[in-house]
Amino acid sequence: MTAFVGVSDMVRWIAQHGAAEIIAGMAGAVEEDFRRWESFDKSARVASHTPFGVIELMPISDPDLYAFKYVNGHPFNPGRGYQTVTAFGVLADVHNGYPVFLAEMTVLTALRTAATSAMVARHLARADSQVMAMIGAGSQAEFQALAFRAVLGIERLRIFDVDPAATAKFVRNLGARGFDITVCSSASEASAGADVVTTCTADKAVAQVLKDADVTPGMHINTIGGDCPGKTELDPRILERGPVFVEYPPQTRVEGEIQNVAADFPVTEFWKVLAGTAPGRTSPEQVTIFDSVGFAIEDFSALRYLRESVAGTSLAQEIDLVAAPDDPKDLFGFTTAPVPVA
After folding, report:
1. Which of 30, 123, 205, 282 is the most exposed, having the fewest neighbouring CB atoms within 10 Å of its CB?
2. Among this protein's residues, is 330 annotated catalytic?
């Protein structure tokens, strides 16, 4: 039998533990797996692009568990009554190939993306950071805010979105949770005085939602909206302002902000910062940039964290996803055997 966490149980899990607590714990799980980066069999995601958006498979494995996530990105979906991103994921036993865990990942991806952003910022942002600018108030925005408060203690938020309804939604969801929120009229205004700037927009375009003039010394830039070819958020000149940290270069060079610069543009793989083989932030005045496109190791971490958290509880249901004939060599006989009457 395969353990399964569906949408209703995912929501119950978050209600029981709290999104901020889960994100903080998941940030620890992601960091643990980044620290053993070299033990994973890695590859860039497999993407199918259409005029409507992209559908991707994101595989990865360590010596014991294989994971993959199915995920889409359709930026025009909200106007048609659909979400921009939906997902589900699987963990399988490497030793026999059986899927052992299946989960919804639309919500889980939002949690793991926020957990990854905050985990990286814990090592790259200034330790005295107090203000975060949020450029984009879509589905990911509240999770990012909760993550940066849970992991870095940031409570002062400056928010901007081109859609006033998205901004109002953000304020409605977080206004009563103790945040100090300033609604701004532009990305430049939001970035003014910010220690951390998070860009998270959905349009599939080579955009410049953050300008070079908006960047000030000591700022940490967390750009998470770019995740496919032809979709970026930063003025390319920003990439020259300080070191650029990435997850998996073969994927980021195709999908991240660095797709807009030369193929040999220097980047630092973030896992090397954790391993102590590459520097992170080297001074309070330095600008640091995390060019995040989302990588499969983060989904692996999120799935294993969820699996461990719900094991033995009513939040994980057992489903008969895999046929299990008494004779492993007689699948046909299994299909012709009488079906037990319930």
Report:
1. 282
2. no
- Gap between the Cα atoms of 74 and 86, Å rounded: 9
| Options 33, 195, 214, 227, the catalytic residue | 227
Cα–Cα distance measured from residue 34 to residue 54, given in angstroms and rounded to the nearest whole number: 26
> How many Cβ atoms from other residues are within 10 Å of residue 54's Cβ?
20
Of the chain, the percentage scoring pLDDT greater than 90 comes to 90
Can you tell me which residue has the tokens 């060599």?
329
Helix extents (H) in the chain: 7-17, 19-35, 106-124, 141-152, 164-174, 187-191, 249-255, 270-275, 296-310, 331-336
Model confidence pTM above 0.70: yes
Q: Which two three-digit tokens encode residue 255? A: 């999908």
8 Å CB contact between 105 and 89: yes
Q: What contacts 113, CB < 8 A, 6 or more positions away? A: 140, 143, 144, 224, 292, 294, 298
